[in-house]
Design brief:
The protein contains 7 helices and 2 strands; from the N terminus they run αααββαααα. By secondary structure, the protein is mainly alpha-helical. α1 packs across α3, α1 crosses α4 and α2 packs across α3. The longest helix is centred in the last third of the chain and has 36 residues. It is elongated, with a radius of gyration of 21 Å.
Length: 185
């Protein structure tokens, strides 16, 4: 299954929580899901149109006095059925793409300090993401008593938190190893 095919299930999943505009979808993706999945506007809007055409979502135009009108999408019963069917299927193999690791893999073509800089930047991003995951964890735990969806969101946040902790630990080790290599030359 391609990422474009999965995009429809991401959108159906988000719309199963609440009706949203394409802009709302992108905002939720960027804030809450970017550590494990991403969709561009170029995927969101055509996929919403296809879902509407297939009868899996409906669209309501909300007239705005200021600014453009909003197209709010809601999942249909048929869309909910398709989502539930997909959710019951086995997940495909995870894929991780880290440009930092790709650059390190070919690090013998650059000075050591370039590799150190890449790792330091990776570490800083990981630390920032860890802070965000910690805040998400706190907020989700506070709302568990009144929103069952948040339990499942919490599970994803816990993996994100563990992943970012491991990334920071790896970065510290890698920088230390590169610095030792520099001293030994």
């Amino acid at each position: 299954m391609t990422n474009d095919n999965i995009a429809k299930f991401v959108l159906l999943g988000l719309l199963s929580h609440e009706p949203m505009t394409g802009y709302d979808v992108k905002k939720v993706m960027s804030l809450r899901m970017s550590y494990f999945w991403d969709l561009s506007y170029g995927q969101i809007y055509p996929t919403l149109e296809a879902l509407e055409k297939d009868g899996l979502v409906t669209r309501e135009v909300v007239i705005e006095e200021r600014g453009p009108n909003r197209k709010v999408y809601s999942i249909t019963e048929e869309g909910l059925g398709k989502l539930r069917k997909w959710l019951s299927e086995p997940a495909r193999k995870e894929s991780h793409k880290y440009e930092t690791l790709l650059k390190l893999y070919f690090g013998n073509q650059t000075p050591l300090d370039t590799s150190v800089k890449h790792i330091q930047e990776f570490r800083a991003r990981s630390a920032k993401n860890l802070e965000m995951m910690t805040l998400f964890e706190e907020n989700l735990k506070e709302s568990l008593s009144w929103n069952n969806d948040h339990f499942y969101m919490l599970l994803t946040v816990l993996l994100g938190k563990s992943t970012f902790k491991a990334s920071i630990e790896w970065a510290d080790t890698a920088i230390k190893m590169l610095e030792e290599r520099t001293r030994s030359r």
